[in-house]
Amino acid sequence: TPYAVEDEAVDGNVAAGLAFSGTLVALGLILMHAAAGDFTSWEDSIIVFLVDAVAGIIALLFIREAISRLLVSGDLNKEIALDRNIAAGFIEAAAIVAVGGAIAVAL
User: Fold this and answer.
1) Distance from C-alpha of 94 to C-alpha of 96, rounded to nearest angstrom
2) Deepest in the core among 37, 48, 56, 86, taking most CB within 10 A?
């Protein structure tokens, strides 16, 4: 995001907190899936984890940008950071959690 999440949270921006929490949940879903599976050996399991985790996180970054452009007619980051629009933060959180779940299933 072009805004500093920590600064927004300190300033009490609930919209930024919602958007950030959605991102954390999506990352958790991706990493949970990357860590799941049968253990074969340390080397094989770590390689599979890293490939899944990196691919999922990169996909999440690109899809988050697409979501911000498709779901809101204006600038989603402006709505969250400057206007403190809680609905925009919730839309981003819900969409990114859904995408994180879809990425986790797809990996």
Assistant:
1) 6
2) 56
The three-state secondary structure class of 26 is helix
> How far is it, in rounded angstroms, from Cα 36 to Cα 28?
12
Biggest CA-to-CA distance, the chain: 50
Residue 85: alpha-carbon gap to chain centroid: 18
What burial class does residue 56 get, using C-beta atoms within 10 Å of its C-beta: 0-12 exposed, 13-18 middle, 19+ buried? Answer: buried
- pTM for the whole structure: 0.84
| Local confidence band at 1 (pLDDT 50, 70, 90 cut-offs) | low
